[in-house]
Amino acid sequence: MSVSAVDYLQAATHLPPGGRLVLYEVAWEDYQRLAASFPDVAHRRISYSNGRLEIMSPQADTKS
């Protein structure tokens, strides 16, 4: 099965507050495409190392 940067982006947009998604065997090119098209970069963090892609969503702000 082939997974693309679009699939990673779709999965990342559904992360709940405080959620984390870790994917393995991700191609560098897919990471680059994802990083270039990633919305709300300030609101989500992505990292890549040796085929391991991690996408993190911040905790919800509980201040009222």
Supply Rg.
Answer: 12 Å
Secondary structural class: alpha+beta
Tell me the span between the first and last alpha carbons.
45 Å
Low-confidence residue ranges: none
Strand order of the largest sheet: 1-3-2
Order of H and E elements: HEHEE
What is the share of helical residues? 25-40%
- Strand count: 3
Major β-sheet annotation: 3 strands, antiparallel
Could you characterize the architecture of this molecule?
This protein is of the alpha+beta class and 64 residues long. It has one domain. Helices cover 30% and strands 22% of the residues. β2 and β3 (52-56) form a beta hairpin. α1 crosses α2. The radius of gyration is 12 Å and the shape is elongated.
